[in-house]
Write a structure and sequence with these properties.
The longest helix has 18 residues. A hairpin with a 2-residue loop joins strand 2 and strand 3. The protein has 423 residues and is of the alpha/beta class. The chain has 2 domains: 107 residues, Roll (Urease, subunit C, domain 1); 301 residues, Alpha-Beta Barrel (TIM Barrel), CATH 3.20.20. It contains 14 helices and 17 strands. The strands form 4 sheets. Strands 3-2-1-4-15-16-17 form a 7-stranded mixed sheet. It has a 4-stranded parallel sheet with strand order 5-6-7-9.
Length: 423
């Protein structure tokens, strides 16, 4: 059946599985989920919601799971996946990434490249994302338009850089702020694709630009995204550039870009215990990007330590340093990285499957509001998955685990965001 309008009421029938909390899965065989106005109204056994005289999407024998949330992805780097993976962060940026991002000065070329990225994002089952664009305002607008047309929920950032960048990408400070303000005004009222302030990382922004972005954050009450403590060389660079600040984290905090409004910080590998607790106190999200951390030899994020401290957390593909937009890949890699970390830190237990799945759904989704679960009141972002249990012996959780570890986007039969099918 095709859902023709966002306000239409319908029932989704299938095997529902999601995580209300990190500790365990909620699973319901032959469940029914009532959707109206893009939100989940009720969930229960199918027999309890049937016979209401409203349309039924019949996916019996399939898994119904929340759509995935990618909290850190660089749309302009999609076509450089796999390039320069022998390099570490700073040289990788200089040799590959900046040259790739220069191509987005042409909005027409950007439209072609961003369309490829969005097509793969939808195919991979991501229904919400926090996205870095580039410093180019016209191309960033193109990205927002394409995401909106696709029906994806997103925070999109026009990147700010006025220092330590190639001439083709480096902005003048005032122009960077003026163009950012213009971008905010154009997109701040959109219900689906919204702006997020995006200083690339501390080395690429001057104190004046950081101060101006902090003022914009408070004036417009806008969220912020950036990078934090990804690489040892980067951390040392920041210390040299900002000797007056106590830490990398303190650079953002001083300029009101760290928890004054909702904040995403990617990587967060090299933080002190004091920094970690401060992140928790400020309710700043740490975005775990395990693939890119391995590919660029950046390090192993202490995920258990951060969760134990109460830090909010989600997962990010970090494409193009990450090599896949398929979030189950990040779920598995996060678990694997935590196992490696635990070998040298036995006090930090590895992540469990329910925890990693939660981070890629409800944990990251909470940055968007009630997103990332199949509970009543949540946005109807969901995937229909064929886990291919030909032997008929697997529990619903085992079917999900099989999909996460062995499946691919081909196993996703249908994708919905805010109650609408994605094509």
């Amino acid at each position: 059946m095709s859902i023709m309008s966002a306000g239409e009421e319908y029932i989704v029938r299938g095997n529902l599985i999601y995580t209300e909390s990190m500790e365990r899965f909620s699973a319901l065989s032959d469940g029914g989920m009532v959707v109206k106005n893009g939100r989940i109204q009720s969930v229960g056994p199918y027999s309890s919601v049937a016979d209401r005289g409203i349309p039924v999407l019949d996916y019996r024998d399939k898994l119904i799971i929340p759509g995935f949330v990618d909290l850190h992805v660089h749309a302009a780097q999609y076509h450089q996946i796999g390039m320069g993976m022998d390099e570490t962060l700073i040289r990788w940026l200089e040799k590959y990434t900046f040259a790739e991002e220069e191509r987005f000065a042409d909005p027409e070329r950007a439209a072609v490249l961003y369309a490829d990225f969005i097509r793969e994002l939808v195919y991979s089952g991501t229904t919400r994302a926090a996205v870095f664009a580039t410093t180019h305002p016209a191309a960033t607008d193109v990205l927002c338009q394409l995401l909106k047309k696709a029906g994806l929920g997103a925070f999109v950032g026009k990147v700010n850089m006025d220092a330590n960048a190639p001439a083709e990408l480096q902005e003048e400070t005032k122009a960077s702020l003026d163009l950012t303000r213009q971008f905010l005004r154009e997109w701040q009222e959109d219900p689906l694709v919204r702006p997020i302030l995006t200083p690339r990382f501390a080395p690429s922004v001057t104190r004046e630009l950081l101060a101006g972005l902090g003022e914009l954050a408070r004036e417009y009450q806008l969220p912020v995204q950036s990078h934090l403590a990804e690489n040892r060389e980067e951390v040392a660079w920041v210390a040299g550039l900002f000797p007056e600040r106590a830490s990398y984290l303190d650079v953002y905090d001083h300029y009101h870009l760290f928890g004054d409004t909702p904040t995403l910080m990617a990587h967060c590998i090299y933080l002190s215990a004091q920094d970690i607790q401060y992140m928790a106190d400020r309710k700043v999200y740490a975005v775990h990007c395990p693939d890119s951390n391995l590919n660029l030899r950046s390090g192993l994020m202490p995920a258990r330590k951060m969760l134990r401290a109460g830090v909010r957390m989600g997962l990010g593909s970090d494409v193009g340093a990450g090599n896949s937009l398929f979030m189950p890949h990040e779920i598995v890699r996060a678990i694997e990285v935590s196992k490696v970390y635990a070998m040298n830190h036995p006090e930090d237990d590895p992540l469990h499957l329910s925890e990693a799945f939660y981070l890629a759904t409800k944990g990251g989704g909470s940055f968007f509001g009630q997103v990332g679960s199949l509970e009543p009141g949540y946005a109807a972002d969901f995937l229909v998955v064929d886990a291919a249990d030909h032997q008929g012996r697997r529990s619903l959780i085992e079917q999900l685990e099989f999909f996460l570890y062995h499946g691919s986007p081909r196993n996703i039969c249908a994708r919905y965001a805010a109650g609408r099918p994605l094509v």
